[in-house]
Model the fold of this input.
Amino acid sequence: MRDPLPTVASLAEQWRAGTVTATALLEQALARIDDPAGQGKPAFTKVHRAAARAAAAAADGLRAAGVVASPLAGLPISVKDLFDVAGEPTPAGSVALADAPPAGADAAIVARLRAAGAVIVGRTNMTEFAFSGIGWNPHYGTPLNPWDRATGRIPGGSSSGAAVAVTDRLCAAAIGTDTGGSVRIPAALCGIVGFKPTARRVPRDGCLPLSVSLDSIGPLAPTVACCALVDAVLAGEVPAMPATVPVAGLRLLAPQNYVLDGMDKLVGRAYERALARLTDAGARVTAQIVRPLDELPEINAKGGLAAPEAFYWHRALLEAKAAVYDPRVRVRIERGAGVTAADYL
Done:
């Protein structure tokens, strides 16, 4: 059994109380990242040591002066490898952009994190161009799922490094992107919480796109409460804990078709236990067949919205550098070439 992860709120309170410094929190994270027996190398594509140390020292100085910008102030936070960081290229888990010019400015969410006093520890690994829920990366390696490293199970993707960075305490929370599950899948597989907000809630300026219709920016963190605090900063709101909604009386639907097909028995048992706990707490859970779900394979047969929107962005780069793409990702993107305007609409 793994030790429980410290929450964002608990770390923030320790820092505000002066029982720990931002510099100490960062150095602990860097030591874990540098541990040759750990997952720091595959979890990060780049570590911002000098900049992070300067940010941590600045945060400690501000706290000493009584200035606490947000609940993320002084805490080490990681960002996915597809966000612009001023002065650096934005590889997005690929080598096809190795010669891309450095970003001229921070992505909007990077700027908001800095303004909130967060210490950006580095860029986390990901599935190339965010186009897979598995988490493999042939260029930078694949971080291993924390629950079974002996077997080498996948972490889930595309925000693979983000999830493992949180589970291994390489950062207090991580920022990922989610188009069809790329925050929620790795969070679920690694045993933490991932939140996909409404797509337009968090500005995507400076974020390399996969599907402009579906991309969303969200946090991966130890708890729902942690995600709420991080999400508020990303959305430009005053961080506050949302009110608890009582479970008793909630009406919930548990689909019985399509989503259960091929489910692993162990996962199935966990799913049934979750439904039982909700029922015991007073929720009204209805098990029912939802016929429109059976139409999903046909709807997505040509790649859905993501394939043509990805191909639109990648087509010039593919002409020049298709050979260096992960072939699993390239095939998914190239499906978009066969989608007509009528199909897309």
Observations:
- The chain has a mean pLDDT of 96.
- Residues 49-64 form the longest helix (16 residues).
- The chain has two domains: 8-234, 253-345.
